[in-house]
Amino acid sequence: MLQGKTALVTGSTSGIGLGIAKSLAKQGARLVLNGFGEVEAAKKEVAALGVEVEYHGADMSKPAEIADMMQFAASRFGQVDVLVNNAGIQHVAKVEDFDPARWDAIIAINLSSAFHTTRLAIPAMRKANWGRVINIASAHGLVASPEKSAYVAAKHGIVGLTKSIALETAETGITVNAICPGWVLTPLVQKQIDARAQNEKISVEQAKIELLSEKQPSLQFTTPEELGELAVFLCSPAANNVKGVAWNVDGGWVAR
Description:
The chain is 47% helix and 13% strand. By secondary structure, the protein is of the alpha/beta class. α1 packs parallel to α2, α4 runs parallel beside α5 (149-168) and α6 (187-200) packs across α7 (204-213). The protein is globular.
């Protein structure tokens, strides 16, 4: 379905981003990966799916490095056809205790980076009259939790950015949408579970249930593979008229 197309996925050396990259690769897309994880391992996993893969180590808090990454992708593969803005960081603290530097970093990486990649990708998409921008927001782009002010603000901002650019491109072959996951079992979340199990002297399985029961009624984690398959759908002809959606994949989190 995506043969001849190029996908760039930020924050794609592990977790959600790598899962999405692999799903797009299975559809034939060439990939540009980005992130600070195990680069060679990630490239190998994607290349094993039979597609060309490149990597750019842009720091997503730095607009000049983002511009260099977008230019690199264009020079290597022609243009970015599918842009997945996934890079993100988190910090938890009450607002009065929130380190301003951490606030600035979260807004830069979780929100502003998507503006910078998208503004640079849209011109070629307009020229081709086809493109897909998929922003990985969060259930926290739709509802809030305490002690996550920067993350919630950034993810609400991503949903608003998605809607605005979807309207700007509504009459073209470009679609802009957001995916809003709840709890996803990534290596970072697994660390939280392990820490809870150790601190509360309970089993890892019980720690998982406790974590999920606070927010996610299904008591099941979403997987990176499931999010990848949703991204594939959003790239398909069936989603040609899906524009400006914030699609929650959250086991019922936002429903209650």
